[in-house]
C-alpha cells in the first residue's frame, strides 16, 4: 500500500514537469521549424520565383508558406520518423527521462543540419562564440544553427539567381522589341508578365521548382 502511494505521489509530482516541458516544446516549435529544418531554403526560393515572375501578390503569402510547410514535412519525414522512434516513443513509454528525450531528439536534427552546413560557416560562428571546434561533429548546437541558416540562405539565393535568369531575358527581349517598334508609351511589364506566365505554365514551372529545391537537400 505504501509503495502504491509513493508511486502515485511521484506521478503527481512529475505531471506539472511534463506539462511545463510540453508547453516549452510548443513555444519553441516555430523557432525549431524555421531555424533547423528545410523551411528557410524552400520559402526563400518560392518567394524569389514569385518576385521573378513579377506578380507581387500572387500566389499569396499564405499559399507559399503552406506549400513550403508541406515540402518541409516531405523532406524532414525521415528525420521526424527517427525522432519519433528514438525519442518520443521511448519517452511516452516511460523508458527514458526528459533530458534523454531532448538529447535523442536533437541528434537526428543535428545530423540533418550537418549534412547541409559547410565547415567554413561552422568555423566562422565558432570563432564568434569563442569556441574551439575541431570538426563539424563537435560543434555546439548554438553554433551549428546559425551556420546552418546562413548556408540555407546562400543556397536559396543561388537557386533564385538561376531561376531569375530566364525571366530577366524575357523582360529584356520585350523591352528591346517595344523600343525597336517605337512603342515608348507602352509599359514593358504589360507584355512581359503574360509572356512569363505562359512560359512558366508551359514548362510546368511550379513542379520543376518544387522538385529542384527538394532534390537540392542532402
Features:
mainly alpha; 218 residues; disordered N terminus; 0% strand
Your description of this structure?
Helix content is 81%, strand content 0%. With 218 residues, the protein is an all-alpha fold. α4 packs parallel to α6. The longest helix has 40 residues, at 141-180. The radius of gyration is 24 Å and the shape is elongated.
Layout of secondary structure:
Layout: H1 2-35, H2 39-53, H3 61-92, H4 98-116, H5 119-128, H6 141-180, H7 188-202, H8 205-215
Helix pairs in contact: 2-3, 2-6, 2-8, 3-4, 4-6, 5-6, 6-7
Task: Describe the structure concisely for a colleague.
The chain is mainly α and 218 residues long.
- Proportion of strand residues: under 5%
Helical/strand content category? mainly alpha
Rg over CA atoms, rounded to whole Å, is 24 Å
Secondary structure: number of strands: 0
Instruction: Report how far the terminal alpha carbons are from each other.
Output: 56 Å
Amino acid at each position: 500500500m505504501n509503495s502504491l502511494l509513493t508511486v502515485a505521489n511521484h506521478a503527481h509530482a512529475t505531471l506539472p514537469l511534463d506539462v511545463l516541458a510540453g508547453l516549452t516544446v510548443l513555444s519553441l516549435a516555430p523557432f525549431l521549424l524555421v531555424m533547423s529544418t528545410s523551411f528557410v531554403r524552400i520559402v526563400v526560393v518560392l518567394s524569389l520565383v514569385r518576385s521573378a515572375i513579377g506578380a507581387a501578390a500572387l500566389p499569396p503569402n499564405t499559399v507559399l508558406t503552406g506549400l513550403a510547410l508541406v515540402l518541409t514535412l516531405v523532406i524532414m519525414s525521415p528525420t521526424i520518423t527517427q525522432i519519433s522512434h528514438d525519442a518520443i516513443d521511448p519517452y511516452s513509454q516511460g523508458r527514458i527521462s526528459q533530458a534523454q528525450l531532448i538529447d535523442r531528439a536533437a541528434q537526428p536534427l543535428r545530423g540533418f543540419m550537418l549534412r547541409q552546413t559547410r565547415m567554413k560557416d561552422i568555423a566562422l560562428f565558432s570563432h564568434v562564440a569563442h569556441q574551439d571546434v575541431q570538426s563539424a561533429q563537435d560543434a555546439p548546437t548554438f553554433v551549428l544553427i546559425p551556420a546552418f541558416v546562413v548556408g540555407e540562405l546562400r543556397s536559396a539565393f543561388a537557386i533564385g539567381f538561376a531561376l531569375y535568369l530566364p525571366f530577366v531575358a524575357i523582360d529584356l527581349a520585350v523591352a528591346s522589341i517595344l523600343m525597336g517598334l517605337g512603342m515608348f508609351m507602352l509599359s514593358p511589364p504589360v507584355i512581359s508578365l503574360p509572356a512569363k506566365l505562359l512560359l512558366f505554365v508551359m514548362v510546368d514551372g511550379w513542379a520543376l521548382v518544387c522538385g529542384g529545391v527538394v532534390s537540392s537537400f542532402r
